## 1
Amino acid sequence: MTPIVHVVEDDRSVRAALTRLLKIAGFETRSYASAGEFLVSERDPAPGCIVLDVGLPGLTGIELQAALQRERDPRPIIFLTGRGSIDMGVGAMKAGAVDFLTKPVDRERLLVAVETALARGIVAKARDEVERELRERIERLTAREREVFDRVVQGKLNKQVAFELGTSVRTVKAHRAQVMLKMEVDSLAELVSASDRLFASN
Amino acid sequence: MSAVDQISGGRNLDSSLASYATELPQGGKHALDSNSVVALAVFVGYFAGAKMGLALTFPPNPVSILWPPNAILFATLLLVPPSRWWVVAMGALPAHLLAELQSGIPFSMVGCWFISNFMEATLGALIMRKLGALNQPFGKPLHVIAFVFAASAAALLSSLADSAFVKLNHWGNAEYWDLWAGRSLSNTATSLVLVPPIVIFATGGLQVLRRAKRSHLIEALLLLVGLLASALVVFHTQVAERILPVEIYMPLPFLLWAAYRFGPPGTGATTALVAIVAIIGSGQGNGALGLGSPTDNAYTVQLFLLFLAPTLLCFAAAVEERRRAEALLRQSDRRFHVMLEATREIVYERDLVSGAMWWSRSALTEFGYERSSNGNDYREWCELIHPDDRESAMAPLHAALTGGARQWESEFRLRRTDGRHALVSERGFIVRDAEGNPLQMIGRVADITERRDTDELGQELTHASRLTVMGELAASIAHEINQPMSAILSNVDSAEILLSRSGSHEHELRDILADIRADGLRASEVMRHIRGLASKRGADIETFDPNEVVRAVLRLVAPVAKRRGVPVSIALDNVPHVWCDRIHVQQVLLNLIFNAMDAMAETPAPQRELFVEVFRAADGMVQIAVRDRGHGLSVSTQGRIFDSFFTTKRDGMGLGLSIARSLVQSHGGSIWATNNADGGGATFRFTLRADRRERNRPQEPE
C-alpha cells in the first residue's frame, strides 16, 4: 500500500504548490483546506503522514494534532508555520510532531521530513495494527478472565490471585489457561508484553 | 449662646452687642425649672414690686402710676410654660396678701384684685403665645407690636373685671368706667415699661453685660450718666415756669443711643429708668410732667410712657433684627468667599445698567494679577482676552443678551501677567427684569489649561498607539506576504525538480509559471495595501510650527525617557512653519526617538543622551535631527535600515523606519541616517518642506 501525504493548508496557492512539489517528488498526496475537511474525509487505510499548517482558520493545526492523538491516529505530523514562535514549535514537537517547518519551506528539509514521517508512519501503522488485534483479543475475555489477566501480568502468583478473588488455585489455573488461549500467546512473557503494548500509552 | 452669637464670632463691638437674643424657654432646661425657685422668685419679686408700687403711689391719688407686681406676673408667665403657671400663682398669692393686707385693705378686695391681676397676666401671656411672638419677643419689630397688643388687650379686658370687683366691694366711690380707664392705662403702661426688661434680663440679657468689653461698659456708663442727668433736668426741675414743654425730648437722644448701641436690653433698662425718674418727678410735682394736679400728672406720665416705650422697643428690635440679618449676610458672604477661594474659580458680576463690576476676591490672582488691581472696567477685562479669541469669546454672550437666553458659555485664552495665555472656560447667567431686559450678568471663569493639556496628551497617546497598532498590523501583513512567497518558492522547487529530469514537462512548467505569476501579483497587492494603510487617515495638510510638534512629542516621551534613564535635550531654532501633516511628523519623530532610546539600551547610563534639533536647512526645508549615543549603524545595515521588514531588533518588525520614510517622502521630504563623527551613536535626520509663505521669513528672533 502506497503511503499517502496529507496536506492541510488553508492558503490555496501554498496548498497547490506544496502538493505539486510533493507529487513531483514522488509522493501520493491528498489536500485539505481546513482541519474540519481533513477530519470528515474518509479514513484512508494506507499509512501516511500529515503536513499541517499551524495557522488554520477554525480548528488550528495544534488543536487538530491533539484531536488526532485522542483518536490514536498513528500518522506522524509535520507542522508548517508562517510566523510560529519557538514555544509553539517546542510544544508541537513534544506532542510528537516530526518537524516544525517555517514558510517558505526549504525543499530538502521538507522532503526529508516527509520521508521520515512516512517511515515512522509505516512503523506506527504496523504497531497500530498489532494493538488493534490485541485489543480485539482482550475483548473476548470474560470478566473473571480479565481479572485473572490483570493480576497475572502484574506478576502475581496463582495463590495470591486465588486469595484476592476468593477462589481456589485450581480455578485460577483454569482461567489462566483460558486467557493464554484467547490472547494467543504461549508464555507469560508474551502475555506481559501484550499487556504493555495495550496499556503503555494509557 | 444664640445663633447670632456664633455667626458673628470674633466681630467686636457691634456684633457682641447684637448677640443678645431672647429665647424664651419652652419647657427646656433653665434655672426656672425648679418649682420652688420659681415660686420664691415670684414671691420676692411680687412683694418687692408691690412695695415699689405703693412707694410710687402719691397721695391723694389712689391709683399707683405703675403697679409692678402685674408686670412681674406677666413677665413670669411669658418665661414659664403654662403647665407651671400654678407655681407662679402659688408664689404670688402670699406676696400679694402680705403686701396688700398690710395696707389695711379688706380681705375680699385683696382677693379680688389678685384674681384680676392674675387674669391680666394670663391673658397677656396667652395672647403672646397665640401670636407666636414668644421667640425673641423683643428682637423683632413685629413681635414688639404683638407684645404691645397683648399687653393692652390684657389690661383692657382684666380692668373690666377689676372695676367690677371694686364696685362690688364698694371700695371707693369712683365711676365704673373711670375706674376701668384709669386701671387700663396704668396697667398697660406698667406692662410696656417693665415686662421687657424683666424678660430680657431673665433670659440672658445680663450675660451680655458680663461679656461686654471694657469699652462697652464705659460707653454704657457715659450713656447712663447722660440719661440720668437729662432725665433729672427734665423731670425734677423745681421751677416749673422755667420748663419748656419741648424739653421733654432731652432724654430722647440717650434713649435712642441706648436702643441703637445696646439693643433691646439697653432700651428695656433705660426706659425703666426714665419711667422711674419721671414718676418720682411728676409725683412730687416737679419737672415737665409735674405741672398739673397729681391725677393729671399721673395720667400724663402714663401716657408719656405708653407712647415712649413701644416706640423705643420697636426701634431697638428693628436695629437688632437688622444687625442679625447683617451678621447672617456676613456669614454667608464669608462662606461664599471661602468657597470661591477653594474652587479656584473666578466669579464676577456686572451690572448691565450702571456698568459696575464686582470681582470675587481671588479674581485674577490665578493669572498672576494682584488682588488690588482688579479692574472695575469691563473693557479692561476684555483686553486680557487673547486678541484672536476676543470675537469668538464675546459672541456667545452677545447672542445670549440679544437673543433673550439666560445663560452663555465660551472658551478663550486669557493673558497672564507672565505673558503666557491660560485657557479658560467661562459660563454665565443673565438676570433679567420682568420685561426681559437684561439687568445683570454673573459669570464664572475657570482655568482649564491643565485639563486641555491632559486632553491633548491623550490624543497624542492615541496617535502613538497607532504606531503600536501598526506594528501588530505589520505582523499580519508579513504573513500575508509570506504565503505567496512560500508558494512561489515551492513552485520554483517543483520546476527545478522537473527540469532536472529527462522528458518534456512543458505543460506542467507552464502551470507552475502561471501560479508563480499569480502569487507574485498577490504579494505586490499586499504591499500596495500596506502603503495605503500607512497613509490611510488621509493626509491632513496644514501649516504649523515644527518646534511645537517637537515640544509636544518630547513632553509625551519624557516619562518614558526618564524611566529608561535617557536624558533628553533639545535645540530649537527659529524656523519657518512647515506645510504638512502634523500627525505624520509626530509619528516619524516618535519612531526615531523610540529607536534612539532602544539603541542606547546597552549604552552605559552616564553616556546616554538623546538630542533633538530643529533648524533651517537649505532649499526651503526644515530639518529635524534625532541624535543618540547608541550602538550606531554597521556598514551592512546602513543601506537597508529604511527597507520594509529589515530590523536589527530582536522583536522588531522592521516596519517603523520604512513607514517613517514613506510618510516623510509623501510630504516631499527625505530621511537618512548617519553615524556620529564624535562619541558614537547615530543621527537620524528628516526634512520637511517649509510653508511657501514663510520661506522668506527673516531669521531673526521674533
Note: The longest strand of chain B covers residues 421-432.
## 2
Amino acid sequence: MLLEINDLSVSFSSIHGTFHVLDQVSMHIGPGEIIGVVGESGSGKSVTALTILRLLQDNASIDSGKILFQNQSLLDLTEKEVQTLRGKKIGMVFQEPMTALNPTMKIGRQLANVIRKHRGVSKKEAAELAVRALEDVKIKDPEKVAQKYPFQLSGGMRQRVVIALAMSAPPQLLIADEPTTALDVTVQSEILKLMKELSQKKGTSIMFITHDLAVVSDFCDRVYVMYQGKIVESGQTGEVLSQPQHPYTRALIESLPEGKKKDEPLKVLEGEPFNLAERPAGCVFFERCPLRAERCRSTLPVVSKGKHHRVACWEADHDHV
Amino acid sequence: MQAETQLTQMQSPTVKPLSRNKIRWLRFKRNPLTLVGAGILLIIMVLSIIAPIVTPYDPAEVNMGERLLPPGASHWFGTDEVGRDILTRILYGARLSLGMGISVVVIAGLIGTVIGAAAGYLGKMTGQITMRIMDIMLAFPPLVLAMALTASLGPSLFNAMLAIVIVKVPVYVRLARSETIVVREQLYVKAAETFGLSKAWIIARHIVPNVITPIIIQVTIDLGEAILLIATLGFLGLGAQPPAPEWGAMINTGWEYFIDHWWYPTFPGLAIFLATLSFNLLGDGLRDLLDPKATK
Amino acid sequence: MTMFEMKDLVKQFDDVTACDHVTFHIKKGETYGLVGESGSGKSTIAGMIIGLLEPTSGSIRMNGESLWQNGNYKRNKDGAIQIVFQDPQSSLDPRMTVRQIITEPLRVLPKAVRRERSDDRYLANLLKRVGLNEGHLDRHPHEFSGGQRQRIAIARAVITDPQFIILDEPTSALDVSVQAQILNLLNSLQQERQLTYLFISHDMSVIRYMCDRVGVLYHGKMVEEDETDSLFKAPRHEYTRKLLSSLPQLKSEEDQYV
C-alpha cells in the first residue's frame, strides 16, 4: 500500500465552537492507482488532503488516527521531514493554479528551481529539464512558455504548469483538489487526459478530490463518497456509481439533471446538513435519510458488499436493489 | 491555499455562526488593553458629567486667598494663579476636550464618508477632481493647516473645531473612496442597479453601510489626535480662550508658573496624555474587532 | 410569440469584441439557453439586456419596444425584467435583512403595489413559495447556506411579478444536491407564473435539462442555435461537438478513459 489512512478524526476550533470535520476516516491508495474522493461542501474531502500534506492550520487538531505513507507515519514526522516529502514524494495541485505559482518569476525558472532541489542537477541541466517537463504536459512551444510569467498564460495553461511542477520529481502520490473546477469543460477534459497519461507513464498514484461525480466516473479506479466528515460508501467506481448502496450516494446521483426531461422534477435531498459542531451519535445521514430506522439513530455499521464495496448503512444489508 | 480551503470548510452551510455581536464581545474581552482604554475613558466621562457632585468648587470662581496652592488634602491637584481648583477645571475641561474631540471627528467622518462614497461611485471625472482637491489638502501637515485656518478665521474654540474638521475630512474622503471602489464592483450593487434605483439610494443604502466600518475604526483612532490638536491650538492661543477650562489653554497659562508651581501645567498635561492614550488603545482594539478579515 | 429580439448585437471593450453581431430571439414562455465557456460573451449579453452594459451597436427589443435608446436603458421602472446572479454570496447586500433585500426592487413600482407586497403576509407566502419561511425575514444573508441565499435571490427576482428573468449561472456555485432543488423551484415558478427565462450556463447537462432552445456562443459569436433536442442529438458546428464530447459522462460500466 502506498498510502493508508486509518480512523482519522480532525476537528477545528474557532470562536464559533469545535467542528468535527473528519470522523474516523479510513482510506488507502495503492501504487499507480487513481482514487476519487467525492463530496459536497463540508464533507471533509479537502481537509483529508490537507491532513495528508500536513498543511492544516493552527486551529485544527488531529484527534485520532494514523496516516502511513510507504509505511512511514506521516503524522509523526518533523516539519523539516514533511517539507522534503512534500513536492518530492507527494505532489499537489489545487483548484486555483496561481496559488502555486510565483507571479514574479518566469515559468522556466520556477520549474528549474524545483527540479534542482529534487534532483540536484546543474543549473543548465535543470533549465533543459524544465523545458522537457513543459513538453511532458503537452504545452506547445515549451521554450517560449518557459520565458513567460504566469499572468501571461490562460487558466488551463497555468494548471498545466502547476502539474508540471507537481510531477517534476516525479512523486509517488499526486493530490489533486478540484484541479479542473475553475476550468472550461473542453480544457478540463484535456487536463484529465493529461493527468491520466502522466500517472501511467510515471507510475504516480492520484488522489482526486472533486464534487463532480461525472468526472470521477471518467477518471478514477476507485471512489470514496464522503458526507459531513464521514466516508459513507466506497468501492470500484463503476460499481459504486451504477449500483449505489448508500441513500446519500443514490440521492447525489439522482439529483443530477443528466438524461432527464424538463417535465419530470429532479429528485431532491430534503433538509440541510447538520451542524458540524454537533455530531450525531449514529448515522451522519440520519436527519435527511428516506430509509432511516430507529437503530440508525445510535449506531453506524460498515457493511461489505462484494469484494471492495463498503457502505455505512444498515439498509445495505438487505438485498433489495 | 490551505487557508482558503479551510475557510470554505468553516463557512460551510452546516456552520451556524454565532451572532456578530457575540463574536465581537468574545474578541473584545481577549484584549485587555482595549478594556483599559475603554475603562479610563468611561471614568473620565462619568467624572466630567457628574463634576458638580464630585467637587465642591466652581471652575470659574476666583478666590485670590487660595492662589497657587500646592496639591494637598483640600485641593488634590492644587490651585491656579487666581485660586481656582485645578482638578475641578480639568474635570470640567474634559467636557470640552472630549466633547469637542468626538464631535469634530464624527462630523469630519460623516462628511468624508458621503463625499468619498459619491466620488468613488459616481463618474470618473467627479472622482478625479475631488481627489485632486483632497490631495492638495493632505499635502499640508495637519497642525500647520489647522493653525493657518484658525489664525485666518480668528482664534476661538469654534473656529479651532472648524479648522480640525477641514483638516480631517480629506483623510476620510480618501478612505471612503478606496473602499467604495471595491464595494461598487460587488454583485449586490450591480443587482440594485438593475432594479432601476437612483444613484443616491444606492450610495445611501448599499455603499455607505458597507464602507462605514473602516471609517468608524479610523474615527476612533483619530479621536486621540483630535484632542491633541484642540489642546495644541488652545496652548498656542488659537483655540479656546481663557478663562475656559480647556486643557491646552490651561497649560498655556500654567506654563509661566511651572518653575515654582510645577503642578499647574503638569496635571492638565497628564489629562491630555491619558485621554489620548486611551483613545489610541480603544481604536487599536476596535480595529482588531471590526476588521472583517480577522476570523479567529 | 416573440418576446425578445436581439439583432446584430455588438459589445466592444477596448480592443476585445465580447459580443460580435449576435442575433437571436426568445419566445414568450420558453427557456432559452445560452451556453459557452469563459470569455464567450454570455454574461455580456445578459448585462446588455438587464441594462448594466450599453450595446456598442445593434438592438434589443422587448415586446417590440427597443430597450436601449440613445444610451439610455428604458425598461427598468416596471420590474418586468429581473436577474438572478451566479454567486448568491455576493449578490445579496450583507448589511441588509432578508426583508430589506427582497422588497428593494419594489421601490420603482407604484405605491399601492409596494404597500401590498411589503405586507408581512405577502412576504411570508413568497418566502414559503421559494422554500424558506417567515422566520427568515429579519435575518441577514450570512446566516444562510448557499442554496438558501439563492432562494432569497429568486424571491427578490419574482416580487415585482416580472415577465422575464435572466438566470446567469444560477446553480454553478452550488452543490449538486442543492442545484437540483433550485432547478426544480425555477421550473415550477415558471409554470405558475408563465415566466420566460434566459438561462445562461457553461454546464451542458443543466442546459439540456432546462432549456427549450439553445444558442452556443464561442468567442462572442453565436456559432449554432437549435431546439435543445436536435442540438444535443445532431450538433452541426464543430465547436458544439467538441463541447459535447468534452462533457464527462456518468457511466454505469467501467470504461477506459479515451
Note: Chain B has twelve helices and no strands.
